[in-house]
Structure formats: structure tokens, C-alpha cells
Fold this sequence. Notes:
Homodimer. The chain is an alpha/beta fold and about 160 residues long. The chain is built from five helices and five strands.
Amino acid sequence: MNITLITVGKIKEKYLKLAIDEYSKRLTRYCKLNIVELADEKTPDNASEKEEIAIKEKEGEQILKHIKDNMYVIALDLKGKQITSEELATMIDDLGVRGNSNIAFVIGGSLGIAESVLKRANYKLCFSKMTFPHQLFRVMLLEQIYRAYRINSGEPYHK
């Protein structure tokens, strides 16, 4: 199974980089992980709605360049469906069984994900109605992917 994280924004904090590295290392026994880190567009203070849409679309163009035709795309979106860790594990397992061995998770920038990317997505996933910094969210997503593989392997993992 190939898992790709396509993310907007750079990780600057050392403690987050260490956590990402740790989960990336743990995942090597379950899947091939690729993290694509894209630069975020600068948002001016008091940006208009039109400016924000243009910024998201510019980021979206960069995201779409990294999505291959054979990828099953899961966009992280506040309007997406909330599921449990067990349901995520089942989804990942089912995708593999059905021959979808290339899964891409997309984390947008601070303004969210462009409509063009949401249209390409096969599934829209919401972790919570709360807002999280996308740098921290990357760690949370990797942890949930790791948890999913542990669940699917019947290995212990705290609930």
C-alpha cells in the first residue's frame, strides 16, 4: 500500500518534525509513505473573500499536480464525514482489497482546500469540527493512519 500525504505549509517546529519522523518510521512496516510538502501562499491581512478563493485555487493547482490518476484521494475538510479510528482502519483495508493501493490524504493550507481539489477527492474526511494548525494536524493524521494499520493487523493499540 502506498500512502501519500499532500500538505500545504512547511513544518518549522522541531518537536513536530520529530513526531512526524517517528510516525513515518513506525509506518514503514505497514506501507510506503510519501510526504509532499507544498509552500503555502501568503494571505494578506484583511483579505477579501475573492482573494482568499484565489489563494486556495493557487494552492489547489499545486496539490493537483501531485495527484495521480490512480490515487484514491481523501481530502481533510471541515464539511467532510466524521468517522472513528476503526472506521478509518476498515476504509484503508477495504481500499487495499479492492485494488486501490495508492491513497492520497490532502491537508490544505490555513484557508482550507480549493474547490477543484474537493471535486477531485473520492472522500471528504473531517476529524473534528474544531480547527487545528495544519502543522499539528499532520502529526494527528499520521498517528491515525498508524493506528489504522495496528487495528487492521490485530495488534494492540490503546483506545
